[in-house]
Amino acid sequence: MIECKDLKKIYVSGDVETEALKGVTFSIAKGEFVAIIGPSGSGKSTLMHILGALDTPTSGTYFLDGREVSKLDDDQLSDLRREKIGFVFQAFNLLPRTTVLRNVMLPLLYSETSQQEREERARQCLKYAGMEESKFYNLSNQLSGGQMQRVAIARSLINNPAIIFADEPTGNLDTKTSHVVMEAFQELHKKGHTIILITHEPEIAEFAQRVITIRDGVIESDLRK
């Protein structure tokens, strides 16, 4: 599913160069649940942006599902994100005065699918993510943090992505709710989804089947359970 070789990323600000990634090489198979963990400034966010087609490396190669992402332009990256990738973020990124159902339907707004089909797909994704049907017509600002994250998970599934990126998905949640949300990701993994989790919390990384630790722009360890 993912093949990275010697990925480097250098940020330039005036005369100052900062090497965020210093030659990262690894692969991720289809259906894996992988946590990428590291402290602030380790390079994990830079790596996630490259893997999620939000940025390109300075050098090195990156293949996603057989396609060389490292050579794509902005429009091609945008198409790739829409077709292949689902994102779940720490901040949920839901429209507060919009219903749960409509929040999940948003990625399909400009698709050629009918309103009925969009709604049916949104319902299926919400149920898949473990959301109670009684909440489908609630406004998102009426939900708990854990419920909002389940809606965000459902929205990430709406285009049937090849891979789901979860960027600090429990960062705004208490410990109990964090575990509930991570159990939802484990259920998605059991159903065959490829999931990459970005976190700085070791106890959250433990929910994955494989943990890649990054520090100072290099992979420090890569452990499978």
Give unreliable regions as ranges: none
**Name of the level-1 CATH class:** Alpha Beta
Domain tally = 1
Output the CATH topology: Rossmann fold
Distance between the termini: 19 Å
Radius of gyration, whole Å: 18 Å
Largest sheet: 6 strands, mixed
Content-based structural category:
alpha/beta
Please indicate the percent range of residues in DSSP E strands (runs of 2 or more): 25-35%
> What order do the SSEs take from the amino end to the carboxyl end, as H and E?
EEEHEEHEHHHEHEHEE
Placed side by side, the strands forming the largest sheet appear as 6-7-8-3-9-10
Helix content: 25-40%
Q: Could you give me the name of the CATH homologous superfamily?
A: P-loop containing nucleotide triphosphate hydrolases
Question: What does the average pLDDT come to?
Answer: 91
Overall geometry:
globular
Give the tally of β-strands. 10
Overview of the molecule:
The longest helix is centred in the C-terminal third of the chain and has 16 residues, at about 175-190. It is built from 7 helices and 10 strands. The protein starts with a strand and ends with a strand. It has a single domain (about 30-60, about 70-225), classed as 3-Layer(aba) Sandwich (Rossmann fold). Strands 6-7-8-3-9-10 form a 6-stranded mixed β-sheet, with helices on both faces. It has a 4-stranded antiparallel β-sheet with strand order 2-1-4-5, with helices on one face. Helices cover about 30% and strands about 30% of the residues. The radius of gyration is 18 Å and the shape is globular. With about 220 residues, the protein is of the alpha/beta class. The relative contact order is 0.20.
